[in-house]
Amino acid sequence: MAHVVIVGAGQAGAACAAKLRALGFAGEVTIIGEEPAPPYQRPPLSKAYLLGEMEEERLWLRSAEFYAEQGIALRLGARVEAIDTAARVVTVGGDAVGYDELVLTTGSVPRRLPAAIGGDLAGVFTVRTLADVDAMRAEFVAGRRLVIVGGGYIGLEAAAVGAKLGLAVTVLEMAPRILARVAAPETSDYFRALHGARGVTILESTGLERLLGEGRVTGVRLSDGRELPADFVIAGVGIVPATALAEAAGIAVENGIACDAMGRTSAPHVWAAGDCASFPWKGGRLRLESVGNAIDMAEAVAENICGAAKPYEALPWFWSDQYDTKLQIAGLNTGYDQIATRAGAEGAVSFWYYRGAELLAVDAMNDSRAYMVGKRLIEMGKSPDAALVADVAVDLKTLLKA
Predict the structure, then answer these.
(1) Beta-carbon neighbour count of residue 313 at 10 Å?
(2) What are phi and psi of 376, to 5 degrees?
(3) Positive or negative: CA dihedral 280, 281, 286, 291
(4) Which residues form a coiled coil (predicted)?
């Protein structure tokens, strides 16, 4: 009987296993994960879970009963040490586990601050796993001083939690503006104002020279020589694809584990999906760090394992929750040269990214209609005139029929 082994018990791994069973795959399915918890949602970690508004069990993607009923074996708290692609075997906990098809859904790992500048001091955290957030939750006490290194979405979400819980929060961003890598100045301006109104101090064009303290962090020294006190520090400086296992097995890596349009890697019978994988995209290669991509690509791989021979077509979408603002993003804004701004009801707003006349992406703040219409337009390959988008007298839904 065929055996599919999935390495990585996150969103992509769980989605692949569930899709295999939904498609009627009757062979063995095993998910191997390094963490002791069953597959769970990561986005709420830096939001509702950190705030104490969500219990661990509510993070779980499926109940324990689901895996048992579906005949999906979970091997948790276990690390795969090696892959032998010739013998079709993975080594885990000293055991050799054979596979007929192997799916790598190893995800990504957070960048950490270098030990040379104090990154290994106690009180310095990253936000990636359940254990990461459990370790820092006790630090979130009203009146304490939190310094966040990095003004991306993870850093800003952590800042929102800190401000809501009454901490004194400072965000350091080396670039000229927060969200510079991922969003237009208009979106940066929106979130800068949002956090400023909640008492968060945002220092842009400000680098970190080093963390201060003996044994435990007590402050930070900035690139301009200033020193700020800190009771704890969160590093939100990005993530990198977890490719070490694949590289050691001789599997090709190019901005992640390199896949073809079907999700196959350079090694026979080995597939990849999610944060760890890159795939063909408009003449180049793309790697997406999102829940949507993790699910969609993993399900496409499951279909192709079952013989569909169906190329994966990414439809990028993302979101972020900060205070009472929900940001929803459709598309990819790479290469944009103009922004159309559309005001919504009750302070909602959306920013529409264009390259020439082509609509690339939409950032919608508390405007689900703008997001849904924008997402649909992008998927349909339609690009309404930017002036029409910006005109609040124009009903967005009419643009879908134009």
Answers:
(1) 12
(2) -65, -40
(3) negative
(4) none
DSSP state of 45: G
**Burial class of 91 by CB neighbour count within 10 A (0 to 12, 13 to 18, 19+):** middle
At 202, phi and psi to the nearest 5?
Answer: -115, 120
CB-based burial, 153-170: b 16+ in 10 Å, e otherwise:
bbbbbbbbbbbbbebbbb
Q: Could you say which DSSP state residue 157 is in?
A: H
What are the tokens at 399? 């643009």
Place of tokens 């390259």: 355
Residues 89, 94, 95, 97, Cα dihedral to 10° = -20
Beta strands in 201-332 (DSSP E): 201-204, 208-212, 219-222, 227-229, 232-235, 239-241, 257-258, 270-272, 277-281, 284-286, 317-322, 325-331
Identity of the residue numbered 235: A
The tens digit of pLDDT for each residue in 104-158 reads 999 999 999 999 999 999 999 999 999 999 999 999 999 999 999 999 999 999 9
- Under 8 Å between Cβ of 149 and 233: yes
- Please give the Cα distance from 127 to 263 (Å, whole number): 28
Tokens of 360: 């690339």
In whole angstroms, how large is the CA radius of gyration of the chain? 22
Pairing of strands 145-149, 168-173: parallel
Per the document, the length of the chain is 402
Q: Are 222 and 209 in contact (CB under 8 A)?
A: yes
Indicate the residue type of 252: A
Residues 26-77 pLDDT 10s: 999 999 999 999 999 999 998 889 988 999 999 999 998 999 999 999 999 9
